[in-house]
């Protein structure tokens, strides 16, 4: 499965209730590159879930303290309200019905440091 197959999919909680849709993914880089010509290994950290799905990019406004130009930042924060991060370990499975979360999953802040 590739990431574009997951974008827009329903996200279901442990009871099967829809909590939103996958809008983006977060990755982390593990370790150092093997050489200057290569990249560090990327690992899926989690998914961003938005209860009011839209395909617009965050335009970098998910970073803490980024505010200028303020009209765009304010609009993006309003548009993305309610969005949360679900870590990969909270995903119970991915099927035809969408992404299923484990019971007791944690909604984390989508804001980057």
TrEMBL record:
Protein name: PRC-barrel domain-containing protein
């Amino acid at each position: 499965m590739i990431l574009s197959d997951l974008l827009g999919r329903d996200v279901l909680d442990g009871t099967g209730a829809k909590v939103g849709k996958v809008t983006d993914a977060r990755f982390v880089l593990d370790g150092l590159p093997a050489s200057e010509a290569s990249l560090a290994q990327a690992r899926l950290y989690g998914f961003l879930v938005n209860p009011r799905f839209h395909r617009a990019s965050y335009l970098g406004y998910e970073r803490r303290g980024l505010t200028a130009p303020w009209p765009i930042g304010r609009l993006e924060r309003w548009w993305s309200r309610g969005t949360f991060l679900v870590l990969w370990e909270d995903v119970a499975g991915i099927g035809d019905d969408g992404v299923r979360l484990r019971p007791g999953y944690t909604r984390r802040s989508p804001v980057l440091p």
